[in-house]
Specification:
five-stranded mixed sheet; alpha+beta
Length: about 180
Amino acid sequence: MSSVFANKKNVTVLQGEFRVSNDPGVYFSTVLGSCIAACVYDEKNGVGGMNHFLLAHGGGGTANARYGVHAMELLINGIMKKGAERRNLKAKVFGGAKMSVNLADIGAKNTAFIQSFLRDEGIPCISSSVGGTSARRVRFDPVGGSAQQTHVQNDQRLGEMEQAAARPAPAPKPAAPAGDVMLF
């Protein structure tokens, strides 16, 4: 592991999550296939964060960090609350691989979304590693902005897990009428 990450606490960012910190003793990590991790930071004020979104757009207007626009809003707002100044924000972007030759290229859609979002918001993307056909493990220092990527071997299972996670959640069951007793 790079000296930037040595002796620091690892905080894992899972699908649909984001993390923000101004603690120099912390770094974030995640594993990506077709998903995207946006690492946004303000080096001057020593604060940054990472998200991990599954799909560019959600269906039915669901506000959920699994979807790009909501994940980006949550991340940027979280960084700003910790003292970042918008004019200092920079981004590094990872992921967007094509994990299955037989399915739609979700990774390409995610990549197009994040590039467009950052451009529209005026946040420079100073580094990115997107596309390809293999998964990535990413580490990110939110205070200094350093990032490290390694390719993951035997990543077929990750592609399958991402496809399963991308399926819409089942509709909630209707509530029992008042006064009825439900046994579990």
